[in-house]
Design goal:
flat, CdaR_GGDEF, CdaR-like_regulators, 5-stranded mixed sheet, 19 helices, RsbRD_N_dom, single chain, about 65% helix, alpha+beta
Length: about 425
Amino acid sequence: MSEAETQLIADLTARMLGELDDLVDAMNDAEAQIVPPLVADRAIAEEMSASNRANVEVVLKHVRDDPLGVGPAEPPPEAFDVVRTVVRRGLEMDVVFEAYRRGQTVVWQRFMELAPTVAPPGPELVAVIGRFAEVMFSYIDVVLIALVAEAQRLREEMLGGALARRTETVRLILDGAPIDERVASGRLGYELSRRHTALVMWLDGSAGDDGALESIATSMAQATGARPPLTIVAGVRTMWAWIASEGQPSMAALARAMRRAPATMRVAVGPTLTGLAGFRASHADALVVERIIGDNTGGERLVSFADVAPIVPIARDEQEAARFVADTLGALAADDERGERLRATLRVFLSEADNASLAAQRLHTHRNTVLQRVGKATELLGHPLGDRRLAVMTALEIAHLLGPKVLIGRRGGR
């Protein structure tokens, strides 16, 4: 390549790096359409998105900084994370292959859209396109070869081990496969005939710590008077757990156990149900909670299915939830500190049947402060609290649990 051509491709990849967020979003959306499991599972979706970002950055930065150099020799750590999760879940690597091919297509299409804007038709444009194609397609081959080798290594490591048997047995139960309850209990070392409370536990942020998740799951079981929980590592930062008990575990007991958890840890709690079917259903409902609150980083740390059940029909659809919140709360749906403070006060006030004294106790503030904030919140609503009371309470709960993505003024809100 000539000096002019290397400068053109460096400028072009620098431009793509400048729109990296949009490019990764497009990759995520395209992969979700082709590979539905990436949408259904928050942990896998997050890890795949992190892998997309890391892979694109590696390629674009390499071409920008060294257009003539040998392509990247190995995948970034994020690419291995998602493969480990796929293998642990017992999924086929086809999920990863399809996602990579679709993501590659998105990047290539964007490059081809931008290339003619930096070079007119002619030899220079052909050279720029040819060099980028060479680096990108060679890199994808390198990545997939490395990921297949890692998947094979993990499968060989798991074969014949207790972890493999436990993971496979849990997968059979969750998939609804015919399996004898006593046989499954023996394989798991966990009594399936009892009542089960499923937990989906994860850590916000980039760092994972299986030990912390396992420790808090055990503390929660102990706090409810139950035997040690059944746990399955479900992702780099995610664990699934089940607590077997005779009765209904107390949320207050679970909350006490959470006090020892890292600040970034969050837990979705399923309902307490009986037997194999209950084991499966409680987990499914815990996953619903996780999907609803998972993106609200820094939100409520311990949420049960009972907490979200009234809003599930609306909250399942993020865009519909955002519309409902905006239409119901109006200016009170603003994504700022003042809006958050007024919403929090009004939510507690309404839940305490308009009792300012009880609301003040819960909010650790003065009764007059509560009344002042409720008055300001009512002004922003634009109508008396008695009008559309149920809708307002529902919208406040959705805003509380889902956070910025359904509020006005942030990306993802209206």
